[in-house]
Amino acid sequence: MHDQPTINNEQTLLPTRRNRRPGPYNISPYLTNFGSSTGSSSSHPPIFELKHPFIFDLISDKYDIPLWDVFRSWVRDGLLTKHDKKKHDQDHYKKHLDDFPVAINLGVLLINNKNWFYNMYFEGQLLNNSHIDVIFYYLRKKAKYEVGSSYKYTTVDCVFSSKISSIWKKYLDLDGDVGCADEKHVIGEYIKGYRMHAAILWHMVDHVFVPVHVKDEFHWVLAVISLNDKRINVYDS
Q: What are the boundaries of the region Disordered (predicted)?
């Protein structure tokens, strides 16, 4: 019998605390620091993916120089010695160095050949409909997802001008007495945003960019429909 309880000087070791890892459905490629609150019932921080790649531009010289240098080296790698003597529809690269093992998805087009980028990069090359459609697609995305811009615009594709030309011919034949296109016409689909990816309804913008191909000259011009001013401005480089 002891008047005082015996004191044990040895302290019991605590088990190693388990570091809880998130499950496969909670893992995000954009989040690397997981806290203790991570779990199936926990709220996660919002993740906003980049909607368009226009984080810089080449006009104001505020662009990613290392990224531009990598692209410039890539587009020049494997070129033929006299690549500049080739026509725009001919191969400019050495054999087996122009095809991609996996096609590049540019939203409205799959690219599996390097010559497509060659025609965009080097001077004096002709741009076809696919080049213009891709450029205008990303301009359309920039206009739709860019926050804080006061310049409201959208774009169309290369087919639009041909549709307008066909309506104009009908309009001339009818002497302008009746309408040539109702709201169910393909032009109405463009206006309502049904025709293209990342489209914006025309009543939400001030300007519409229209590419126009002058076939006789192998040349592109830009028509801008100003909805507020009810006029069409044509720009020629």
A: 1-24
Phi/psi of residue 212, each to 5°?
-125, 125
Contact between residue 116 and residue 75 where contact means Cβ atoms under 8 Å apart: no
Bridge partners for 153 per DSSP:
207
| C-alpha to C-alpha distance for 209 and 49, rounded to whole angstroms | 26
What is the sign, positive or negative, of the torsion defined by CA atoms of 52, 117, 100, 66?
negative
Is the Cβ–Cβ distance between 116 and 128 less than 8 Å?
no
Residue 78 burial (C-beta neighbours within 10 Å; 0-12, 13-18, 19+): middle
Which residue from 173, 167, 168, 157 is spatially nearest to 208, judged by alpha carbons?
157
* Segments in 33-174 forming alpha helices (H): 65-76, 115-121, 129-145, 159-173
Element (H, E) at 204: none
User: At 228, which helix (H) or strand (E)?
Assistant: none
As a whole number of Å, the CA-based R_g of the chain is 29
Q: Is 46 exposed, middle or buried (0-12, 13-18, 19+ CB in 10 A)?
A: exposed
- C-alpha to C-alpha distance for 110 and 157, rounded to whole angstroms: 16
Report the candidate in 117, 52, 34, 45 with the shortest Cα–Cα distance to residue 79: 117
Kindly state the DSSP code that residue 108 receives in the 8-state scheme: S
The answer to whether residues 149 and 172 touch, using CB atoms and an 8 Å cutoff, is: no
Q: What share of the chain is helix, strand, coil (3-state, %, to 5)?
A: 30, 15, 55
Please give the model's pTM, rounded to 2 decimal places: 0.72
pLDDT digits (tens, 9 = 90+) for 19-59: 666 555 455 444 445 455 445 555 566 665 666 666 666 66
